[in-house]
Amino acid sequence: MPPSGIIYQSASFLKRMFYGLMRGVGAGIISFVVLSVIFAYYPLVKEEISYKFSKKAVATQSGFGSLLDRVYADSASRTQEEAKKLGVDSYFSIVIPKIDAHSRIIANVDSGNKEEYLDALSHGVAHARGTYFPGQGKGIFLYAHSTDSPLNFARYNAVFYLLGKLEEGDKIIVFFADKKYEYKVFDKVTTSATDTSWLTDKGMGEVLILQTCYPPGTTWQRLLVLAKPVTQRN
């Protein structure tokens, strides 16, 4: 430590110069050390600060996410209750009010496997494997068409037995994954029993295609009812 006060004042000029120089060197060394520490630890400090802010952001997002989860849960609960009142579940099912048709839908049924689709049709309406689901913006193919004699139509075809009664503008409701999707009929097509072209998406956007045997109780032809989405409720 350099002399100060009276002693310092009485020192010779050279000594004062020497002490001043030492003081400057000391201050420089201290500044150098401080700057070195700052540069050495700055990246770590920066990461710590970023981490703390990111944790706050995550906490905020998590809170918002929890709110959204509750909203979705409430919406799903309402959809489940509505489906239940209509006599179906909200997992995957169909309701056609005009003809009082309602049934569960069995997803991803192989339309080329007779044993598989007959089993599916004994439990409800079949969704053709390779076609899409509500909300995906492409063709959804549902069918209840496989009867091998008029005696079996009550077993396999009752759900869509009156499908031919549907006209343009009639409503079809599909519940899928706790969401409700509404469609309106815009066309009907009668085609051959061997026509499988409708199983391939035709680039028409989201179209719900319902197929059944026609005339009812036979396997002579196929009746297709086409419907477009109206609303989607989460």
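(ticket continues) Second input and output from the same batch:
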Amino acid sequence: MTTREPAPGWDAEPAVARDADATWAMLGYLGAIFLGPLIPLAIFWLRRNKSQFMRYHSARALNLSLTVLLYVVCCAILGGMLALDTVTLALAVALPLVFLLWLAMLKYLIRGVVAAQHGQPYEVPSWICATVAAESVTE
């Protein structure tokens, strides 16, 4: 796992604004645990232009939750195909896969919460986080 250096604009922000942004970023990560991409999407949409720090962490939470949602859809398709044989087989394969995906997402979301709380960037492995929302504004 590699970490990126903070964007140049992060140091220029006042400490009070950074604390408020860290709270919003943490809410985005924690909201993804229970409601999937809904909370991170709302925070990304409403707060992405407030600061570079907020955009980075809200996009990271949104990307992670959307990618895991796509994995869950794949598990549902797999479960549907296995249900053509027996429902027991479908449940025995699909439910543990979904649970393991949720645990992996939980691990990376909690690491994201800690990184946001400390005002640091956080790199999620690419196998579980595809880039859907841009983390930085290209000029």
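Agent notes: The mean pLDDT is 84. The CA atoms of residues 27 and 98 lie 23 Å apart. Closing as not reproducible unless the customer responds.
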